[in-house]
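Morning!

This is the sequence you dropped in the shared folder:
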Amino acid sequence: MAAVRTSLTIAAMNTTSASTSSALPRIAVLATGGTIAGAAPDATNTSGYQAGVVGVGQLLAAVPSLASVANVQAEQVASVDSKDMTLALWTKLAQRVNALLASDEIDGVVITHGTDTLEETAYLLHLTVKGDKPVVLTAAMRPSSALSADGPLNLLNAVTVAGKAEAKGQGVLVAFNNRIHSARDVVKTSTYAVDAFQSPEIGALGWVQDGRVEFQRGVVRPHTLATPFVIGDAWPVVEVVTSYAGVSRVAIDALVAAGVQGIVVAGTGNGSIHSAMQTALAEAAATGVAVVRSSRVGSGHVMHNGAAADDALGFVTAGALNPYKARVLLMLALAAGLTTAAALQQVFDRY
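The structure's back. Tokens below.
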């Protein structure tokens, strides 16, 4: 679906003076679908809805107070359920964000997204956006038709954050349920709650409420302009597997036969792997397949065991990245020509 530019400046929708309007930050809102743009047959239905059916113009119209926060330029980049996010759409979205950030007419970007893969998209952009202007993702756990939809306030807060000078240089952010998270740290932790997004290892960066934005810590690891990663048309094939009681090596052997370039394993505990699967992964690593150990636990970090284990087996460890974010980083690193275990470990230790 081609991006549709919506000629809409929210500030012009009310009686805000021209001088006040011109002083407001200029924010581009890119809509991609998701629950925030979902609709159900009735207002009490928060699960049996269709995602991505409400257009960006309708999303903005539901938040008239945006007119006092920013001059908004809106685009419909896609209309998908984020469970169906594709690598091609990632490429398209990242390229559009970079084009907008390069424009002197834009002060920040907000992206409305589905919650299912938001953390992956956010981290991808965190590593590939080439600008220091704010980029803020937001979403909703309830469709726009719900009796107590959370999308309008999340959208208002995201635009508020994107327009603040304090958000500049923080990398890609996620504004959700009044909290501001770093794209590297944030994960979805609930299937239904409106506070579904958390940063379980080290907490949120700050908060946004009633127009006030406060950051209580900054982002430390390199991102955006400080990374070598760029979006291209070709994506290395990287898949995720899980270790569990009684797992076999069948999936590993099938992936290697299919020609994958990388495998991320969601291990138990501290990224531990069932012996049958570990043997298969070590054999895969010996043939040049990149193997990264992460954890299925949900928080904490996977320690690198050095020469005693990981180095001997040719494995890389993901640190605090969950398996799905580890896949994003591994794809970008492989695309950048970093293929040895030593080089990849440096990437995971740095980013």
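Headline: Confidence is low (pLDDT under 50) at residues 10-17.

More detail when I'm at my desk.
O.
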